[in-house]
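queue> holo job accepted (MTE)
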Amino acid sequence: MSTAVAPEASPAPRARVIPWPVAASIGVLAVGAALGVGHLVAGIISPSSSPYLAVGDTVIRYSPEPVTEFAKVTFGTADKPILLGGMAVVILLVAALAGIASRRSRTPGVVVVTVLGIAGFAAVAFAPSFAPLDLVAPLASLLAGVASFRWLHRLALDAAADRAVGRKGGGVSRRNVLIGSSAAVGVAALASGGGGLLLGRGVDESRSAVTRMLAGSTITPAPPIPAGADFAAAVPGTTRFLTSNADFYRIDVALRIPQLRAEDWRLRIHGMVDREITLTFDDLLRRPLVERTITMTCVSNPIGGDLISTADFVGVDLRDILLEAGVQPGADQVFCTSTDGWTAGTPTDVVLEPGRGAMLAIGMNGEALPPEHGFPVRMIVPGLYGYVSATKWLTDMEITTFGRDRQAYWLQRGWAERGPIKTEARIDVPKGFSTTPAGPVDVAGIAWSQPRGISKVEVRMDGGAWQAAELATEVAGQTWRMWRARFDLAAGSHTVQVRATDADGATQTEQRADPVPDGATGWPATIFTVS
Ligand SMILES: Nc1nc2c(c(=O)[nH]1)N[C@H]1C(S)=C(S)[C@@H](COP(=O)(O)O)O[C@H]1N2
Ligand SMILES: [Mo]
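queue> job finished
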């Protein structure tokens, strides 16, 4: 020591440098605290106001359509966890770099943490379902991030200064204060994030209660499914007629499944109606409950794809409700909004078609709707693709026109205004590029043309003559229908093709089309080998 001045009064300036691993940890801890606190406060006030989830939603919203389509097809339902996980890695990496850039001065770190906080703030503020109270969570998140960064940074500088002059200090060293404080921030970040997740749990109880209520209610049942409705027993690998809830395809843009209890649910029906109606869940239970077997289909389903499933849905008739509200002349769009801000526009004439069976569904395959399929209430219109009709977590229904500035989510992204389901078929067996032993070869699959139904399915092998497939017992026009055929084939490579004809005699087109803008078309083909 060449100086007589006390080290704490004037430490050598060069000595106050935070070692880089400590600096990186401070950045990560501060941003972790920001994310956790934001999630917790959002859990208390409004789950969708979590800045982390709002940023993820924004990324999806502004991703070009081919990117979201790619993610949907490649990762299926795992696309959101993968996005959120990737976001976490990127954010924490940025946080670590911000920490390292702040080894001497806290300014770079404070700036980066603030910019991240503002990004979360903006994502919440510009979310489609924004309400002013939603700003509390991102604000708390920003403050928690900046405050923890400044606090830990100061402690780290102190500890660095001590280390530079080799001071051990009596009692609690400033190094230990830093370690203890860092641990506290880390634990608080994890606990608040976890607390935010737990706050959605009241919904589980609400769902169990609805399942019990449905079991005790009088429901007009759907006609029983005949034994011959599928070939699942006879031809292994083919589709079962009813899809279990766990296997039912899922498509939505919700990062976090909306947490809405049945007792808190309201549906406001307004706009071009004679009488505005607000329905509670109890109101629905007091109406006649019907069960309908319906095959739902996603417009994004590629030829041969599996975005199609069938279930027994229980709910109330939507046509009756709209007749009570009194739809005014010219109102050609039923514009629906879900709690997460997603929207769909359904043609009014289809909803009001007497035999169509449009419904507000509350039950699915003998239980309350699963959360991911829209608990507590969703809409279903047989014969329309989901994006124009099947709003999950439905809370608002505005009767309006397509012409006004009410443009639904996927319309803004280039998909068609009306989404009638196209007549299509799929080959389930044999699987593409599989090898089948010589002998009779079963070819089987599904065909659909909701709400008309299927009258004929034809199959041809290696470009030969079309021959009629055997059809399973028809269940209803608004469900799929299974088919099968048997061929004696020589060893070698074969290509089988299929085409379906609807109840009106129209055969599905051979013309290949992508799902965008109104559903894929073309005759499916499967190449396989007989050994
Ligand atoms: N709230 C909400 N409802 C939604 C969607 C959505 O993204 N958000 N996606 C729609 C689409 S595109 C389809 S195909 C169906 C799928 O319903 P499912 O996930 O229950 O199979 O839900 C529709 N309802
Ligand atoms: Mo869809």
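queue> The longest strand covers residues 492-502.
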